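Morning!

This is the sequence you dropped in the shared folder:
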Amino acid sequence: MVGDPNHPEVKGTLSHVPGAWCIETVEDVATLPRGSRVGVVVQSTYSRERFVDIVRALSLKYYDVRSVNTICTDTNNRQSEAMRLAHEVEVMVVVGGKTSANTKHLAELSESCGARAYHIEGPDELHAEWFAGVNVAGLMSGASTPGWLVDKVEHQMEALTNNRSAA
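The structure's back. Tokens below.
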């Protein structure tokens, strides 16, 4: 299984497959025992790009690799959108649980595309200095973040930037 070995989804899946391995990176492929046939599934909130790279590395090591992309469609779409938006903004605010692998990864993707990213759980965590001198800021949310919370963060972002302009 490809994913975070400490994630509840991965732990639960592995508990039903005795002897299965969990890897997180392409480098982990080298640590796996030799064999000829491998089946692969992936944590539903994992990065599509990293999953593809790992399957490619497994295909170089094993004769027969069968992979099933079990990444959630919504997660994949959010990751793609975060990367697209991060190229257009200077700051990206990502709203969602601090322990959410999905939300954490959205912030990482945003930073990898050049935006300063801030992962918050609510509007009270926003700081006006994050937006100082910023012309364009973006807002993303994790898949399980409620819409009303995203709306509150958006309103607080607007209030912070309006207060800055007026000062």
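Headline: The helical segments are 8-14, 48-61, 73-86, 101-112, 147-166.

More detail when I'm at my desk.
O.
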